[in-house]
Each structure stands twice: as structure tokens, then as C-alpha cells.
Amino acid sequence: MKQQEKYIQRSIDLARNGLGSTYPNPLVGAVIVHNGKIIGEGWHRKAGEAHAEINAINSVKDKSLFKESEIYVSLEPCSHYGKTPPCALKIIELGFKKVIVGALDPSDKVNGKGIELMKNAGIEVVTGILGEKCKKLNKRFFTFHEKKRPYIFLKWAQSADGFIDKNFQPFPISNAWAKQFTHQMRAEEHSLLIGTKTALTDNPSLTTREVSGKNPIRILIDFDLKVPRNFNIFNNEAKTFIFNSIKNLEEKNLKFIKIERKNFLSQLMTELHENQIQSVIVEGGRQTLQSFIDENLWDEVFIIKNENLYLENGTPAPVFNYKHLKINTLNNKFIIFQHTNDN
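RE: above sequence
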């Protein structure tokens, strides 16, 4: 068991290399072991490209060793044809003697079918090794398939006395370090959401310009389409969804989606799920953030607090009544609090 955990942990570590690049696919790592020695490794690098198992297989120099080898995979090998052939069939074809799996794939297309294929072919299959760790690695993927919605992060910056702006006007609360943290977060997630007021007041680009990484899909909630088309959120730097109450339209990188104002969050979740969006960072203003909090529609909250800054007036930070906030990071009097929703 200890050895199995060691190699599944290695597959988890490998899988993390794909964070931000594999959407809508999960993060997966694979390790091939022959007589107690790792002879091949791989991870899923990008949607549409080879899966982790295939990358690990291709890294092995002596292909004759497969029949005497075990393959460790953080997530169940796929059993269906998509942009790539099923990994389970490749494992069967090469004759691996044993497959050790961290967690079962929750998607309808797999969900035990890959395990069944390999077992029916006479391969010994072990499941559930470091299962919870493997699920946590793919918290976005599991939430998307089990709850039929994206994994939701709420994030805002506030002063020591609890304001998110000064005199109801934009005010720099964070520093370069906190800004880099935010952009790294953006690079790792699938999408980023703001509301009309934030778009009009800040005119943000919502990119990852401070770090290397892919720009997230931008989501704008603008019921009356008040944001002018020459604003940064409409530029061609990223795909952008505009949720509104007026029209449905696709135009280059822009997709306008019509929803009703009443119960809009429920409609929003449905539309994002249908568009294969696996995670969302909500960076909107107080009203947008509060709407998610009030509906208990979130998975993690990040609060960047400037302990040296007192603004005395302005827009209050969202009301978030959770007593046990974990300090995620501390740097030069900037504290990033983190809370995970256990519901």
C-alpha cells in the first residue's frame, strides 16, 4: 500500500503541471513502474492533446517491458472516443499486468466504464489509492460533473477597516505582490466574472499580464448592455460571455447570452455548465459578490486585506459571516484569508 501511495502521489504531482491548460478536461498524471522502478511518466498537458497515460507510455524506451509493468493513474483511464482514443483500450492493447487508480472519473462518459473494460480484459485493477487527494486535485472537475455547475471562487480586496474603495471611487488597495497572486489565480482558472458597475468603473482587461499563462474566459453580467463596446472587456484578448436580458448573439470572441433578471444565478449556472465552464473567479463589486454569498453559491473565498490601509468611508466589503478564516498567505502586512465551503 505504501508503494502504491508513493506512485499515486507522484501522479498527482505530475498532474498539477497541467493546471490552467486542460479545461474542460481533468488534471491527470500517470506513472509506469517496472520491478519497483519508474520507467515512464506523463501528464495531460492540454485539452485535445494526448492524455497522461499515453504521454507516460510514449516516454518509455523499452516497450517490451509493458507486460511486466504497472501503471499508476490519478484518475480512471477514459473509455470513450473523443478527440483522442480511449486510454483504457491502449492499456489493454499493451498488456499491462496491473492498473492502480486514484479516483474514478465522475463524468457520464466514463464513471467506472474504464475500470470495467480493463477488468474484463483480465487486468488487475486497484482503485481508491489516495482517492480523496485525487478528488481534491480535480475539485473543479468533480464539482462540474456532480453539482452540474462550475467551481466558484469569490475574491476581493479590502482595507483594514472593511472598505473596497474610497469615497465610492476606485482606490488601489493591493500591492504588486497581491496583484501577482491575483493574476496567477486567473491563469489557473477557467473563467473570471464581473458585473456592470465594475466594468464601467474600472474598465478592466481581466488578463494574466503579470504572469505567464492563458487568459481566462471573461464573463460579464450586464443586463441592460450598458458597457460600451470600446471597453477593454470586449477586446480580442480572450473569449467573453456577456449575460444580458436583451439578446442572444455570437460575434467573433464575444457570446451574448440572454437570461432573466429573476433568479439569474440559477440560470447563470445552467448556462455556464452547458458551455463547459469548470471554474469561475468572481471578482465583481460588492453587489455581485454579495449575491453569490447570499445564495451560498461558492466553494472558496479569498479576501486580500491590507492591514495598513484605513479608508474611513466608501463601499463596504461584502458581508461574509464565517469565523474561521484560514490565513493563506502573509506578506508585508497583506493577509490573504481563505475559506472553503463544506456544504
